[in-house]
Amino acid sequence: MLSLRRLSRANRQRCEEKASPLEEWTPTDWAAALAGKTGDACNLIVKMRKGDKVDPNDIGRELADLVIYVDLMASRLGLDLEKAVVQKFNETSARQGSEVLL
What we know:
Layout: H1 4-19, H2 27-49, H3 56-76, H4 81-96
Helix pairs in contact: 1-3, 2-3
């Protein structure tokens, strides 16, 4: 099973080895990359809504890119994404009166 911590370690290592040092991209650069990937996923979803034939796996690949880019942005900002997700999920559950917690 994939954990966000495992993804983060591998993601940062690959970024440093094969792309560029994580710090070379500013948070604004990562935000622009995220916006682009979000747009790619949304474009496929809009095409599907219009009745075009879209392979759901193509949407899955774009969503996976989003997760990968979000992780890199979190790393760039010095955030523990797994901890942030757990905290936010549990806060939302409490606000909604749900007993479902991570």
